[in-house]
Amino acid sequence: MQRSSLLFPVLLFASFLHGQYADVRTGLLWETPTRHVMVMGDGGPLTIWVDGKQVAELGSSDGLVLKYEESGIRARSLLLDLTAKKTITFRSPVGKGFRLRNMAPKSAERSYPGSLELSRAGGNLRMVATVPLEEYVAGVVQAEAGKGHWMEYYKLQAVSCRTYALANKRRHAGEGFEVCDATHCQVFHGRNRQDSIRQAVALTRDLVVVDSDIRLIHATFHSNCGGETMNAEDVWSKSEPYLISTLDTFCLHEPHASWTKSVPRSQWLSYLRKEHGVNTEDTQVVASVTQYAPECRDLFLANISPQVSLTRLRRDLHLRSAYFSVHPEGDMVVLNGRGFGHGVGLCQEGAMHMARGGYSYTDILHHYFTNVHMVKLQNLDFFRDDGL
Ligand SMILES: [Zn+2]
Ligand SMILES: [Zn+2]
Question: Is the pTM of this model over 0.90?
Answer without folding.
Answer: no
